[in-house]
């Protein structure tokens, strides 16, 4: 519970004494304290809130869009989330990076001498707070994937973990064990990190969040924008990661979680590296951002080409046990992260890639192609071709997400206008600070 935010909102609705009483009751309930002790805590919270928010300052304040993260689907790997990422790229501006946020890749790239340096960071799945080991395992594997698909060899991993005030310290160790299980298996070291409480004293409860980053080095890169007309699309078998594990946990199908604990993706991409095929590959991706629907849409957008997928062949690239679970729960496998490796290259190279990956013991199939003349992502099913697009949110994969839904809100365009305004205000503020700082 964010007691600072709670107090701030309540002070707008009721008197200070009433806020203190209600806040103390909430604190006592969550922390299992006496009301007297909780009352002292509540008094201090109110003092800080009044001091912090009773005044304004252009540097401390920020433009309020009136659009919440949940309403706009931020983090839900759909249209709203993708739109916010486009706005983030606008706020960043021209960074001079070889690959930046505007390219819609999961890793950014800079050049240093003759080498490309790829950097990626992934947040832990928000619903794995009480399962720190697999949260660490899957986020580490995800960060490495983002670097690998840029054609880079990971050389270092770093982490950040935040646990709320009442969280057990042991979560730190279980989480780090999950991270280093991947690191040790792949022989890429965890070199640094940060450990903090969420919101310091102001957030009570046991929630955990954080992220893992990865740095890689290469002489070639394989960004999404490099796909070409006539390329074929290859896909390895995917069993999912944090998203599929979350689905299994919250639908009570815990045996499926073990299907996600593998390094098949890394085995496949390392086989490609070992065969010296990276320089011949145009683009690689991991199927995570809202599934095939999301990734294909982004690749089509940055390349200006169309990606065509064979529905049945894509379906066959989902781990059978995972696919059975998804279909039993009526979750669209094309709209959820299955963590497959997607390779886009010419037909001749595709044969070499398939041979190398199969030799590593990983299933891989040709599932589609790239063509010009139209734009977007399409699927062929039953002899008919139809366009596929990401929904407002990725496929609803927990009971609560099914209640929240995947449909676009009726006021989406108005919310988007407000988000545009917020991004513009952030850019203006940055410019004002840069003018103040001068050149270094």
UniProtKB/TrEMBL annotation:
<dbReference type="GO" id="GO:0009228">
    <property type="term" value="P:thiamine biosynthetic process"/>
</dbReference>
<feature type="domain" description="PurM-like N-terminal">
    <location>
        <begin position="105"/>
        <end position="216"/>
    </location>
</feature>
<dbReference type="InterPro" id="IPR006283">
    <property type="entry name" value="ThiL-like"/>
</dbReference>
<dbReference type="GO" id="GO:0009030">
    <property type="term" value="F:thiamine-phosphate kinase activity"/>
</dbReference>
<dbReference type="Pfam" id="PF00586">
    <property type="entry name" value="AIRS"/>
</dbReference>
<dbReference type="InterPro" id="IPR036921">
    <property type="entry name" value="PurM-like_N_sf"/>
</dbReference>
<dbReference type="Pfam" id="PF02769">
    <property type="entry name" value="AIRS_C"/>
</dbReference>
<protein>
    <recommendedName>
        <fullName>Hydrogenase expression/formation protein (HypE)</fullName>
    </recommendedName>
</protein>
<dbReference type="InterPro" id="IPR010918">
    <property type="entry name" value="PurM-like_C_dom"/>
</dbReference>
<dbReference type="InterPro" id="IPR016188">
    <property type="entry name" value="PurM-like_N"/>
</dbReference>
<dbReference type="InterPro" id="IPR009186">
    <property type="entry name" value="Ni_metllenz_mat"/>
</dbReference>
<feature type="domain" description="PurM-like C-terminal">
    <location>
        <begin position="228"/>
        <end position="380"/>
    </location>
</feature>
<dbReference type="InterPro" id="IPR036676">
    <property type="entry name" value="PurM-like_C_sf"/>
</dbReference>
């Amino acid at each position: 519970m964010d007691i600072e935010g709670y107090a701030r909102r309540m002070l707008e609705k009721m008197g200070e004494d009433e806020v203190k009483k209600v806040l103390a009751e909430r604190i006592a309930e969550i922390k299992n304290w006496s009301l007297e002790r909780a009352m002292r805590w509540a008094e201090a919270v109110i003092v800080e809130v009044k001091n912090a928010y009773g005044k304004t300052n252009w540097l401390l304040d920020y433009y309020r869009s009136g659009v919440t993260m949940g309403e706009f689907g931020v983090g839900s790997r759909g249209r709203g989330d993708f739109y916010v990422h486009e706005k983030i790229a606008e706020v960043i501006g021209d960074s001079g990076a070889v690959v930046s946020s505007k390219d819609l890749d999961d890793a950014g790239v800079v050049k240093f001498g003759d080498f490309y340096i790829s950097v990626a960071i992934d947040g832990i799945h928000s619903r794995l707070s009480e399962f720190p080991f697999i949260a660490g395992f899957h986020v580490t594997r995800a960060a490495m994937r983002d670097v690998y698909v840029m054609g880079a060899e990971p050389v270092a991993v770093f982490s950040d973990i935040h646990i709320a005030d009442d969280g057990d310290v042991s979560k730190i160790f279980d989480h780090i064990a999950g991270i280093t299980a991947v690191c040790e298996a792949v022989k890429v070291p965890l070199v640094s990190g940060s450990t903090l409480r969420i919101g310091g004293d102001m957030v009570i409860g046991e929630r955990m969040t954080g992220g893992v980053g990865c740095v890689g080095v290469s002489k070639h890169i394989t960004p999404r924008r490099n796909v070409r007309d006539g390329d074929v699309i290859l896909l390895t078998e995917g069993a999912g990661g944090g998203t599929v594990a979350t689905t299994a946990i919250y639908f009570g199908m815990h045996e499926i979680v073990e299907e996600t604990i593998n390094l098949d993706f890394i085995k496949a991409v390392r086989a490609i590296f070992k065969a010296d095929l990276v320089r011949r590959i145009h683009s690689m991706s991991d199927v995570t951002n809202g599934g095939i629907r999301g990734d294909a849409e982004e690749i089509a957008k940055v390349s200006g080409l169309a990606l065509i997928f064979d529905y049945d062949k894509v379906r066959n690239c989902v781990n059978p046990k995972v696919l059975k679970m998804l279909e039993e729960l009526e979750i669209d496998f094309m709209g959820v992260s299955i963590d497959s490796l997607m390779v886009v290259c010419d037909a001749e190279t595709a044969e070499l890639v398939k041979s190398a990956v199969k030799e590593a013991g990983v299933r891989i199939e040709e599932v589609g192609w790239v063509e010009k003349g139209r734009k977007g992502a399409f699927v062929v099913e039953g002899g008919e071709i139809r366009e596929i697009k990401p929904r407002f949110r990725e496929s609803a994969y927990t009971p609560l997400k099914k209640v929240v839904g995947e449909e676009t809100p009726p006021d989406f365009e108005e919310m988007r206008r407000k988000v545009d305004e917020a991004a513009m205000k952030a850019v203006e503020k940055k410019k004002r600070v840069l003018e103040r700082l001068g050149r270094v």
